[in-house]
Design goal:
Blueprint: H1 3-14, H2 26-35, E1 56-62, H3 69-77, E2 82-87, H4 92-103, E3 108-112, H5 119-132, E4 137-142, E5 146-147, H6 151-162, E6 166-175, E7 181-182, E8 188-189, E9 193-196, E10 204-207, H7 208-214, H8 226-236, E11 240-251, E12 257-261, E13 264-268, H9 273-290, H10 295-315, H11 320-336, H12 344-350
Parallel strand pairs: 1-2, 1-4, 2-3, 6-11
Antiparallel strand pairs: 4-10, 5-11, 6-7, 6-10, 8-9, 9-11, 12-13
Helix pairs in contact: 1-2, 1-8, 9-10, 9-11
Protein name: Glycosyl transferase family 2
Pfam family, one: Glycos_transf_2
Domain Glycosyltransferase 2-like: 59-166
Length: 352
């Protein structure tokens, strides 16, 4: 039984489940014991945790970075001990710009992948570098996340507050389009702390030892579902996920927009046809994997995947022809288990 398959199942199993008075959902407790009997759920309760000395390093993944990257990196660097930028194949002009920016940051360094290895590989490369530099906590960011001045301190405090049971703590973020705080579905607040089942990777902090125990991000997914798979694997290892009460970051998912449908405003992410390929392929892959363990969960998740794609086809102003091509190949590749990056021929067909 693949650990990552079980991990994702755990994530879906706890999604939306009622929480206990300890901040850990009852389904989480039951599933952890069912899947890994040697883990006692009593160990998930908060333990006394004295303030320790944090040495935090940030991993920032870049790919054709925008004009705000200078300000974003400077603000992150001012709050931490080390910053590692992992570039996934940006053009020479962008590389030179990153080199100049990091040249002004004594604790900054750039790792050039030379090509797009995917978000998971870039995160793993950065995390290993941060650990090799002696940092005991790792912070992850997308290139366009805009952080507040107290983000790192607040995340560290919440990591301490949650105790040893918290494997990952996330910054609550403002939507880049609306400016409103985003609380993940299923999040439950307790003692100025949100307990959540899934969260985006950007703005999250974890202990280095937790990364080494849970393992690397899943690279064959390349880009989509990488964060949620990792969230679920953390839960599988007996940890919980937490999020700050205060909003500490601004972030947008996709090319966010609003479509007016009558009197109703419909939110769209406006992802490219290529991203839709990855979303459907990985979503179907996960659905088929879940069929081995729980047909009901597979049905629930499959409906979620299908809804997202229908929503995109209906409301997003993209080439429907390219979407149809993306969906065709996504279904074919999911059926035969073909993962990893899209082929050059498929890239040519889906590139806009």
């Amino acid at each position: 039984m693949s650990v990552s398959f079980v991990c994702y199942l755990a994530d879906l199993f706890v999604y939306g489940a009622p929480s206990t008075n300890e901040g850990v959902s009852a389904f989480q407790q039951n599933y952890i014991q069912m899947a890994n009997p040697q883990i006692q759920t009593s160990s998930l309760r908060p333990e006394s945790c004295e303030r320790s000395t944090f040495s935090t390093g940030a991993v920032v993944v870049t790919f054709y970075p925008g004009p705000d990257i200078d300000e974003n990196l400077a603000k992150i660097a001012s709050q931490i001990e080390q910053i590692v930028v992992v570039d996934n194949g940006s053009p020479v002009d962008d590389i030179e710009r990153l080199q100049k920016i990091l040249g002004r940051i004594p604790k900054g360094r750039l790792i050039e992948n030379g090509s797009n290895l995917g978000i998971a590989a870039a995160l793993n490369i950065g995390a290993r570098e941060i650990i090799s530099l002696g940092c005991n906590t790792i912070l992850y960011f997308d290139q366009d996340s805009r952080v507040d001045n107290n983000l790192v301190e607040c995340l560290q405090q919440h990591l301490i507050k949650g105790g040893s049971r918290v494997g990952l703590v996330a910054a609550k973020y403002r939507d880049g389009l609306t400016g409103k705080p985003c609380i993940p579905e299923g999040g439950r607040q307790r003692d100025q702390f949100y307990f959540i089942e899934r969260i985006i990777t950007s703005g999250t902090m974890m202990r280095s030892e937790t990364y080494e125990q849970v393992g690397p991000f899943r690279e064959d997914f390349f880009i989509d579902a990488v964060d949620h798979e990792y969230n679920s694997r953390i839960v599988r290892c007996g940890y919980t996920l937490g999020m700050t009460e205060n909003t500490l970051m601004e972030h947008s998912i996709g090319n966010t927009g609003i479509v007016q449908v009558g009197e109703k405003e419909v939110r769209t992410s406006n992802h490219s046809a290529l991203r839709r390929y990855y979303m459907l392929r990985n979503g179907m892959t996960l659905t088929m994997e879940m069929l081995r363990y729980s047909p009901s969960l597979a049905c629930t998740y499959g409906r979620h995947v299908l809804y997202n794609q229908i929503h995109a086809m209906r409301y997003e102003k993209k080439s429907r022809k390219k979407f149809v091509v993306a969906y065709f190949y996504a279904i074919m590749h999911a059926a035969v288990g073909k993962l990893g990056p899209a082929s050059e021929s498929l890239l040519c067909q889906l590139t806009e």
